[in-house]
Every structure is written in structure tokens, then in C-alpha cells.
Amino acid sequence: MLRRYGAVLASLVLHAFLIFLMLNWEPEAEKQLPFQETEIIQATVIEGGAPTPPVSASPEKVAEPVIEPSEPVPPQAEPPAVKEPVEPPAKPAPQVPKVDPEKNKREEQKRLQDEERKERFEQDKKQKEKALKEEAAREKAEKAEKAEKAEKAEKQAKEEAAREKIEKQAKEKAEAEAKKKAEQKADADAKRKAELEAKLKTESDIKKRAELEAKLKSEAEAKKKAEAESRKKAEAEAKQKAEQEAKKKADQEAKKKAETEAKQKAEADAKKKADAEAKQKAEGEAKKKAEAEAKAKAEADAKKKAEQEAKLKAEADAKKKAEENARKEALQAAMAQEEAQRQAQAKAAAEKAAQTWVNRYFRPRVEQAWLRPPSSDAGMSCKIQVRLQADGRVSSVNASCSGGDAAFERSAEAAVRKAAPFPMPPDALVAEQLLGQVVAFRFSPE
Predict the structure, then answer these.
(1) What is the spatial distance between Cα 132 and Cα 310, in angstroms, rounded to a whole number?
(2) Would you tell me how many other CB atoms lie within 10 Å of the CB of residue 411?
(3) Residue pair 408/377 in contact by the 8 Å Cβ criterion
(4) Which of 24, 238, 437, 440 has a CA that sits 20 to 30 A from residue 416's CA?
């Protein structure tokens, strides 16, 4: 790291030195003597530059010395031309400057090259500064990532230490209680033994003493055995009672649900029957009305000509046929609607039966298989979503937990996997509902 910073610092110093040289560097043309008029040429090249006092002449005056020497000099103008070359040593040359176009062109090219070099230098400087910034940002990100990993590792270590401390305290407490009970029992046995020995000593009967010791031992073993059997029996009864209560509760809920569904179905059937009767009655009345109208029309049209009667009869037949077709289509539509309703009710009943099956047979198995970790608390929750195969085995598991405890999440997923394979319902439609959907188990220590 120090070597890298040293290289960066050296690069910055080198760049500053090069910039200083470029700012203080003067072209060779500027170092010539004043009588060569380099300042005038430079003033014509730099764009926007302020002219120096010697270069106060206008562009026309500067251009004239370049044109005049190429023209022939008249005889009358020879005396002034002879005197003018003598005056430059005494007077400043910038008043009558002589411009060299080739020299201006070279200076212009040189200036352009200098500007190009300067521009390349600035671009290189910007690229290096950008690279330095990117390197610094990358190092900063690496440091932040390392700090985050270290903080996470430290947090996990603290949590592990706290969990181990709690387990150690619980273990020490259990050992202390067991030790205390053992000491109390040993004290009671010693006290009883001392009383028996004192009694036997007063009676001085060795045989009776042996019998009493044997009896005491057998009584202690019998008592210990009775306590173990009693504890085992109490645990079995408690477990059996809990299972019976859960089963009873599930049966009651299922019965209540079935009664509600039967009631809803009966109401739906009654409503459907009433709708069908009303529809049939309306169709009958419409039919009677149509027949009466047709009969009245036929009687009124009987007085007309044969062509009109044939035409009216054909129209009546066509209308009757259309009505019959309409009745048939209405009947088919009603039957199709009834079949769709029946299928929907069957599907809803299968979904409800599938949910009842999950609550009755899946949930108790998972609850029995779940070993709640000591680190779980009331604020945690975990949702395990599974997909089942036809034989009840788990094909996929998706866990979504909150609370930040990995042991709690592992225990929930292990409980679901341990409870598999699940018993599948004998009804194919109910089993199809279970296989086509996701079964979710939500774990919460509350």
C-alpha cells in the first residue's frame, strides 16, 4: 500500500514539473534579437493575444515591406531608398517591419505542434487522474467490503458465544439441580439408614437387621420403579390427550366446514331450481302468447287470398322453426352453464377438501417432527413452501424466514423434510389439487 501511494505521489510531482516547464518554455524564435522582428510575427500568430508596443502597426503596414522589395524602384526614389537603410541602426526597426511568410508559416506550425503537445499532455494527465480516482475508489470499496465481512464474522462469533453461554448455563443449572436432588436423596437415605442401624443396635438382632436392609433396598427399588412407570404413564397420557384434543378439534372444524358447505350448496341448488322454474314458466307463457297471436293472425288472414295465406303460413312456419331453434340454443346454453357451475363447485370442493386434508394429516406430522431450537424467540417467523410428488415425497423446498436466525430456519426445513413422505388423499381430484399447488407451512415460536 505504501509503495502504491509513493508511486502515485511521484507521478503527481512529475506532472507538476512538466506543467511548469511547458508554462515557462519559450520557442527559439522568441529568443532572437529585436531587430529580427520576432515579436511582430508572434503577434500575428497567437489568436486573441495583446500586441506589444513595438507591434502597434496595422496589418497593412506590416504587409507593405513584403511587397515593396519585389517592385522596381524609380530613379527619383533612389535617394530616399539609400537613406532609409542607414536609419535602422539609429531608429527602432519595428516601425518598418519586414515580414517573412515562410517564417510565419513555420512559427504557426510550431505553435500548433506546441498546442497539440500541450493538449495531449492534458489528456494524459486527465486519464492518469481518472485512473488514480478509480484505483482509490476500488481500494475504498475493498476496505469497506473487508470491514463488513469482519463485522459480520465478529457478530456471528458473538452470537455463537452467547448461544454457547446460554447452553452452558442451562447445562450447569440442570447438573446443579440433579446434584442437589442426589444429595438430598443421599441425606434422606443416610438418615433412614442411621435410624435403622440405631434401632437394630438397640435390639441386637443381626438377622433382623439383614432382613430390614433387604426390605429397605427392595422398597427403594420398588419406589424408583413405580416413579419411573408413573412418569412414563403420565407422559403417554398427556401425549395421547393432546393428540385426541387435536383430532377432536380438527374433526369439529371439518364437520362445521362440511355443514357450512352443505348449507351453501343447498341454497345454491334451491336458487338454481327456482331460476329454472321461473325460466320454464316464462318460456311457457311466451309460447302460449305466441301461439295465441299466431292463431289470431291466422284467423284474421284466412279471409285473404290464397297467395297471402300460403305466404303467411310459410312465415309462421319459419318463425316457429326459429323459435324452436332459439329454445334449443337456450336449453343448450343453460345446460352448458349448469355443467360449468357443477365443475366449478367440484373444483372448489376439492380445494377445500385438500386444505382440510393438509390441516388434518400434514400439519400434525410436521408439528411432531419439529424440534424448536433454544435460540428462537417470539419475534421470529419462517414460511416453508413445498411441492409434493404423487407418492407424498417432497420434490422442492423454498424457505422464507424473518428474524435472522439460521438455526430456526434449518429446524423448520428439517421438520418438513422429516415429516415426509406425507399421506396422499384417496380421492384423485383432491390429490390433483395438492400436486398442482404449493403447500406452505408457517413456523412461529409464539
Answers:
(1) 105
(2) 19
(3) no
(4) 238
